[in-house]
Amino acid sequence: MRYLSLWLDPQLRFHEHAKITASKALHMLGNSTSRMNQLCLRQIYLGAVLPIVTYGSVAFWDGKSSAIKKTLECMQNKALRLITGAFKATPILALEIEASIPPIDITLNYYTERYAMHTQKLNPSNPVMCHILEQHRENILIQVALPLPCFPPPPRNQVSAYLIRQHVVKAKKTMMTRLIHVAKHITPDMEHINPHAEPPWHRSEHDPDTQEQIRLYIPVNNPGMSIKEEWAEDHANLYDEYKNDNDFMFIYTDGSLSYYKGVHRTGYGMAIY
Predict the structure, then answer these.
(1) How many Å apart are CA 40 and CA 51, to the nearest integer?
(2) What is the total count of domains within the chain?
(3) Angle CA(24)–CA(29)–CA(31) in degrees, nearest 5?
(4) For residue 116, which of 81, 177, 185, 269 is within the disulfide window of CB 3.0 to 4.6 Å?
């Protein structure tokens, strides 16, 4: 069954997915080798072929699947011979160095680590973060929501504390999902980035400290009335008052919108003193 461009098998081993994508990628590269130099072939492989075989690698690569690794290695080895034009007896290590293409398992591990970094941009209540079990949250510094129930330990009033600890240790060692594999790549020194951070001027009304640090001066434009001279005089007085204050910074911004030959054009500028 195919779902979101991933071929799923009953055991979710993704062996067939690796074979299908590797065959498709080699077919694409094989049709493009006519009258092309090595640089163009390498760019095609890195820009078109490799993204096909590594698409969804977070879902099918667990860092140790020998069948998937062998299938993708065979694909990349054939691609390296097409790119470099070397003989079949040439060692693969030499081809990887010549083409400057790392082994496929290193590439897959890199994508896994990069996805682990992307998880630090997720909201703490995101379902992805909630599916990480509690025993695999040691390195997650952000305060995330409670994990969703998954294989809970036995009731404490029926078994001893020792058996409960054994259950937790066993679950931590034996239970291995793709998400847990990604969670193991989260390190304590990773910085959490809040993608929904508000700019200071949006929360200045409710933040007294921000009101003291940032002051906004936006002139009001009334139809039929010009306050340019009045605004210029007020600005000159403000500048004279704080021009010798090293802790005071003036930031001027402006924007414009024009319409030319059916195309809207926008411009903006900023000056800091």
Answers:
(1) 16
(2) 3
(3) 100
(4) 185
Q: How far apart are CA 187 and CA 174, in angstroms?
A: 21
Helix 92-99 × helix 66-84 angle, to 10°: 60
Could you say which DSSP state residue 83 is in? Answer: H
Q: Tell whether pTM > 0.70.
A: no
Residue 264 lies in a domain: yes
Q: Are residues 85 and 159 in the same domain?
A: no
On whether the CB atoms of residues 242 and 248 are closer than 8 A, the answer is yes
Separation CA 90–CA 84 (nearest Å): 10
Count of Cβ atoms closer than 10 Å to residue 101 Cβ: 20
CA–CA distance, 234 with 231 (Å, rounded to integer): 5
Residues 186/172, Cβ–Cβ less than 8 Å: no
Distance between CA atoms of residues 153 and 201, nearest Å? 48
**What string of pLDDT tens digits covers the 273 residues of the chain?**
888 888 888 887 888 888 898 888 888 777 665 677 888 888 888 988 899 999 988 888 888 888 889 999 999 999 999 888 888 889 999 999 999 999 999 999 999 888 888 887 777 677 777 777 665 565 555 545 555 444 455 555 555 665 666 666 665 555 567 777 777 777 777 777 776 666 655 655 556 666 667 777 777 767 667 677 888 888 888 888 888 888 888 888 877 777 777 777 778 787 877
**13 falls within a domain:** yes
Residue 106's alpha-carbon distances to 3, 71, 213, 229, 270, in angstroms, are: 26, 15, 48, 65, 44
Instruction: Write out the residue range of the structural domain in which residue 226 sits.
Output: 203-272
User: Are both 54 and 153 inside the same structural domain?
Assistant: no
For residues 75 and 22, the answer to whether their CB atoms sit within 8 Å is: yes
